[in-house]
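Quick illustration, no need to memorize.
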Amino acid sequence: MKQTVQPLHINRMNVPVTPDEPIIAFCTKYLHPQKRLIYDMHFALELGIVLRGRMERRCRQRKEILKPGQIWLCGVWEPHGWAILETPCEVAVFVIRPAALMEMACPEAPHFDWLAPFIANIKDRPRIHDFLRRPVIALGKRMAAAVKAQNAQDAAKNPEIRERARLKLRVCLMETLLMLTEKWRPPSGNPRPSTLYDRINRVVELVFHQRRFITAAEAAKACGMAYDSFCEAFREVMGLNFGDFVMSNRMDGARNQLLATPDPIKKIAADWGFVDHSHFHHAFLRHYGCKPSVYRKQILGNNRRQNDSG
């Protein structure tokens, strides 16, 4: 009698990364083995560090046994599974809004691509060198301390303490990615996506690397799909229409530029591919509920008041 293969159950998770809090971190300790693989997927990127014990990670058909000081990566909506093999097992995990890595730039290395390790093919992603495993564990412990500081009672009362804890998390993430990409370069070439998730991720990558408006027809062509099939698949995987996704990404970027720079609103509108100031004004009003000038004044004013009271 032929055995029926049970379909794989994948938990679709809603990870609460936002433009205001684009990097979230947590530490988990497992005291009992969990040998049955648990699968999930989410829009946020994921970077994890094993601090103690051993765990199994699976992504597509690739299986890895991770030991202390080793790292795993997950891309956008990438189904992945995990199991705990040796306890006590302790892990430190970053979940990251993809746009945060696209916008993270340093004048010392303006062309460094922080997103590249997550979007490379699984077999081509960087692996931590053995001689760096001890420093990676130390970084994970620093990250755990920053998480504890962010969640402390004092941080809830003092915005400055909370902000410093968030900055420490960002620094820990940057250091981890620099260690991970030591002597690693993104592979050259542009292999044709093979699965539905690969194709959708290719389009997501295209959107994150562009500030202009990208049409669904252009996106469908980029991933080798018919227009109607692409629109249906994108909505199924991402949970929203492609046009809404593109607009959300551009509005997030414009909002961040609005708050982080003194650039005139007209320039910000042009930088993010809006037809003119009026087009940007109406799009911002629909997305955030107020005019760009009012939003900038309110947010920056609130930040100054919080700093003065702290």
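Confidence is low (pLDDT under 50) at residues 1-7.
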